[in-house]
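Trying the structure run again after the queue cleared.
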Amino acid sequence: MKKNMFIAIAAFLCIGTANVHAQDKTVSKIIELGKTDNRTMQHVDFLANRIGGRPVGSHSLEDAEKWVAKQFRSWGLEVMVQEVGEINVGFSRGPWFGRMLGEESMSLHFGTPSYTAGTRGPQRGHVLMEPHNRREMNQLKGAMKGAWVLISGVSGFPIDRSTHGDSLRAACIAENEEIAKQNAEIRTYNEQHKDAPKEYIKEKEMPALFYREMVEAGVLGFIQSTQLPMQLCYDRPNCYQMTMETLPTVCDIKLDSEQYDLIKRKVMNRKEVLLEFDIRNHFFEGPVKYHNVIGIMRGTKYPDEYVLAGGHLDAYDGGTGAVDDGQGVSVAMEAARLLAAAGAKPKRSIMFCVWTGEEYGLLGSKYFVQNATVPLQKISNYFNRDGGPTVATSITVPEAMFDDFQQMAKPLADLNPDYPFAVIKREGAPGPRPTKAGGSDHAYFAMNGVPTLSLNLEDKKGYGFNYRDIWHTDQDLYNRVIPEYMDHSSIVTAIMLYGVANLNHLLNRNGLYNN
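Done. Tokens:
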């Protein structure tokens, strides 16, 4: 009896030792491949430079979804494609050009938000300042035809041409008409009381206050100032309600603030200014569907338990979406490729989640969570990457997870002396579980109590990356991505995923939140 028990224990220990040896061998292979054949930047290059900006409803996003699914399949992963939603009208962007004509001719630095109108070929016209009250509108109505109109405000979003926007403008116009009456009374009073005049009431300002009337009068488009880097977003109030019968008809241009101020000074000094724009924004018949694309490496022991990593595929198209979030998607994809190429056989299933519609309200990750794609209590952790193209150097965890992560991080100790990796024990009492979505695709997981510990990122070598420079701007380009940071982060991500997947238990959620 004792002999049989000894044999059983010895066999168990041998199996355990073999498993540890296999894991160590896999980790060594991940590191070797990650250092000698890292393809993270190839993924970024394809997404940013071969496909480009990827707003919901674009051919570009459709192409990117197909490409990601193809890559996952080529690496031997199962692929899940989730239809998250659809939009009535598709949008695609071609080249855009603009210039000021005359003695001080110059090329114009500008852009347009997604889902706004282009020109009908090159359009040339004079420039007017927008009217701020009914009297000015009546004075300029005849001159509006064929004009570019400078409007107030600084924004990367287009004019709100929804019924809600119309009601806000109507209320402002009505208020200003009442102010005009009061100012007329003040004027009469001041003529009679010159020794103690009353102050006039300032009119309310709203960009494109007479929007509908100016469109009906035949303006070519509206020009609004924007600061650099140039933020270019999308027509949030209208894009989902838009049909081919209700497309926008006039351009909504965001112009470099310095050029805007120059043109404005000329117009205010009553100098004639001619501008020419050629903007190739195109619409196509929908519905256009958009999808999550998820690669799955099925677990050998706990196939119905999961560890997740991901980023969002959709991106604004003023730039090419290289950073936000091409780099996040590419790191997750390369982690998948490295694990597959190293022959990884994780105990727990690993899901590489490429989300859709993050910029339109976390649509893809919300769908995944709310439709119970997998049981949320069976997710050990979701690693989200949606920040800068900086390097993974640490992770901060609750005390209950500290020993596990310390063990998992051991292979990272000697990975690269430039980027020593640290596991940091979270200090202080845990905060409450979040109740509102926001930020990025981790949000709906966190709201439902799923651990969403992410790797801490740093610009370790001081390359001067500033996330605000690329956030939804025309500077979100491939040359803003930092290759050595990307390569290292993909290795770290792969090893962390593999470590969590190979634990004999789900991560302990004690102390994650205080409720």
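The chain has two domains: 26-89+288-501, 108-282. Worth checking whether this holds up in the mutant runs.
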